[in-house]
Amino acid sequence: MDLFEYQGKQFFASYDIPVSPGEAVSAVDDAVAAAERIGYPVVVKAQVQVGGRGKAGGIKLADDAASVREHATNILGMDIKGHTVEILWIERASDIAEEYYASFTLDRAAKKHLGMLSAQGGVEIEAVAETDPDAIAKIHVDPVDGLTPEACREWVLAANLNPDVTDGAVDILCKLYRAYTEGDADLVEINPLIVKPDGAVHALDAKVTLDANALFRHPDYEQYDATQVRDEREEAAHEKGLQYVGLDGSVGIIANGAGLAMSTVDVVSQVGGSPANFLDIGGGANADVMAGALEVINNDDKVRSIFINIFGGITRGEEVANGIVQALGRVDISSPIVIRLDGTNADEGRAILAEHASEKLLSEPTMLDAARRAVALAAEGA
Ligand code: GDP
Ligand code: MN
Questions:
Q1: For 43-81, what is the HEC assignment?
Q2: What's the CATH number where 180 sits?
Q3: Distance from the alpha carbon of residue 204 to the mean position of ligand 1, in angstroms
Q4: Is 189 tagged catalytic?
Q5: Pocket residues: Cβ below 6 A from ligand 1
């Protein structure tokens, strides 16, 4: 779950990380009213879930009501890298003495959390990593041991920040680590992490990704879930409780299990096709779920063929096959379907599918064969 900046700052504030006071609005008059309450100067900030808003003209300082009005008018509705601005965050402007970068994310290869800290903030960290990799101080944190204040201090010293702000930086970074772990985040990033002229360390931007699987532990995250940006297909899938991610290609994909769904996306790409989506229907694969999945994929205009990739486990092959057949009776599918069914009772399942075989419903014995067939059919239908 990606948060907007204003939500990220709300999340940070709940862990006592200093952020600027502000208000989220979606109309020009409300922006002006918010600025009047906050006090000038303010910053008018486009809320889109993509970086580089400043460069794109989506972040503007304003000294009075007239300029808030002007900037709010320009920025609302603006397109920033394909994202339309519908929300503005109006916040009290800060004076900046220094701009740093700080983040935590998971380093899967190291099986540890990775903190990154740089005195060269404000710009994209990828650019720093390319031109001056030594300017990024990294720390690996064992998730069991956690981040001790001592280790945090060493990390801060390694980053060569202004020595006057060491204590302030250690304090905010320990809080950031707490927010990251206790808040079940996949990513927390502050760029820039600023030092004000009085030496206070402060989060001027917030990029936060929360683990949607941890929603049950954080009922208040429902508010973030409610504002997730989804395309029409993703919205329809979400309403049906399906694990779906929209992609741009022409081969619709249904698989049971996230790992198998990802492999299916890969194998379709590997044989020269382009996946239209990722869709994991989970272990059950009954007729209801299958019908819902087929509906979502059938409503995607770009889809030219559908690849159903099922590995029977606890759910046996004949149950899955019956589910598919029943689902096909309910949804009028416009594209040809290629099924690969394997695993527990695969033979029984295949026999059921064979009874219903047609030029619109094909079976292939292996994942690779099925991928090739689906990709060829998509090319024919293009
Ligand atoms: P991004 O471009 O999407 O990363 O948006 P940021 O929130 O990081 O803002 C981009 C840049 O705008 C920052 O690096 C700052 O240089 C500038 N900026 C943002 N807020 C303020 C502010 O309160 N005061 C000043 N002086 N500059 C700001
Ligand atoms: Mn930023």
A1: EEEECCCCCCCCCCCCEEEECCHHHHHHHHHHHCCCEEC
A2: 3.30.470.20
A3: 7
A4: yes
A5: 43, 51-54, 59, 93-94, 96, 99, 122, 191-192, 204-205
In the predicted model, is pLDDT for residue 97 greater than 70?
A: yes
Residue 121: nearest ligand to its CA? 1
Active site residue 244: no
Q: What tens digit of pLDDT does each residue of 243-283 get?
A: 999 999 999 999 999 999 999 999 999 999 999 999 999 87
Final residue of a structural domain among 222, 252, 273: 222
Q: Does a structural domain hold residue 337?
A: yes
Name the active-site residue from 101, 180, 221, 224.
Answer: 101
pLDDT at 226: 81
In angstroms, what is the span from residue 125 Cα to ligand 1's centroid?
A: 15
Beta bridge partners of 79: 84
Furthest-apart CA atoms within the chain: distance in Å: 78
pLDDT digits (tens, 9 = 90+) for 319-337: 889 888 988 888 889 999 9
Q: In the predicted model, is pLDDT for residue 175 greater than 90?
A: yes
Nearest ligand to the CA atom of 53? 1
The predicted pLDDT at position 316 comes to 84
Q: DSSP string covering 330-369, please? A: HS---S-EEEEEEETTHHHHHHHHHHT-BTTEEE-SSHHH
| Nearest atom within ligand 1 for CA of residue 56 | 2
Is the domain of 218 the same as that of 114? Answer: yes
